[in-house]
């Protein structure tokens, strides 16, 4: 699969979407940890 530079439209959007997904996974993990502790 060919990947364009990060500044190209779809490439940048995909990178942002991936970051958002990573952030949400992190938040979910933290919330589960807090529930387990609390």
**pLDDT < 50 runs, ≥5 residues:** none
Q: Number of helical segments?
A: 1
**What is the 3D shape?**
rod-shaped
What's the number of extended β-strand segments?
0
Helix percentage range: over 70%
What is the H-and-E element order?
A: H
Structural class: mainly alpha
* Rg over CA atoms: 15 Å
Distance between the termini: 45 Å
Largest sheet: none
The whole-number mean of residue pLDDT values reads: 87
Q: Proportion of β residues?
A: under 5%
Can you give a write-up of this model?
With 38 residues, the chain is mostly helical. Helices cover 76% and strands 0% of the residues. The longest helix is centred in the middle third of the chain and has 29 residues, at 9-37. 0% of the residues are buried. The model has no long low-confidence stretch (mean pLDDT 87).
